[in-house]
Amino acid sequence: EPPAGTVSINQEAAYTTSKDVTLDLSATDLGSSVERMRFSKDGTSWSAWETYATTKTYTLDAGDGEKTVYVQFDDKVGRVSNTFKDTITLDTTKPTGTIKVNNGDAYATSRTVTLNLTQSDAASGASEMRFKVGTNGTWTAWEKVADTKTLDLDDSDGEQTIYYEIKDKAGLISDTLSDAITLDRVKPAGTIKVNHGDTYATSRTVTLNLTQSD
Description:
Elements lengths: L3 E6 L5 E2 L3 E9 L5 E7 L9 E2 L3 E5 L5 E11 L8 E7 L5 E6 L5 E2 L3 E9 L5 E8 L9 E2 L3 E5 L5 E11 L8 E7 L5 E6 L13 E6 L1
Parallel strand pairs: 2-8, 10-16
Antiparallel strand pairs: 1-3, 3-6, 4-5, 4-7, 7-8, 9-11, 11-14, 12-13, 12-15, 15-16, 17-18
């Protein structure tokens, strides 16, 4: 009988961020014992035979997407096994996305704002997101991606920036994205005087003297 065997890429991981992976191999032969192994990326063109081992460092083809590694074993009398294979998705590209605070409004009158979000990742898919308010803020815990998120600004009026990061299923993290909004919770103030504060007017047409502050 020919040898029987298995192959596992990176311990059966679904994704990898590197072309260089580790193959875990096992093969058995009830007769003369396993002798050699060889590999293929398409199941047709094979590498040279090499001495059987239980692990091997292997380089996948470039380009994000699903990759398959094929292996065959032979024994000491030259019987070649069936073809065994495993697949993994190569993802070397960081996710991307966008963020808008309150649909891109310049001002907010409440600390509680709505973040309008997008995420994109072609290889493994966007998985999680996190946020922080201000450069010195603390990142929130990673959470499942969504199109919107409610978040509280810091308790101080003025311009505030919200930062946003996305993680994909392979573990890659996006560049830091951001949007700013100005929190304004104080009503404007002002004064009015009619004709510089005159008590009487002899004409219906008067002049209003005004000030405004915010």
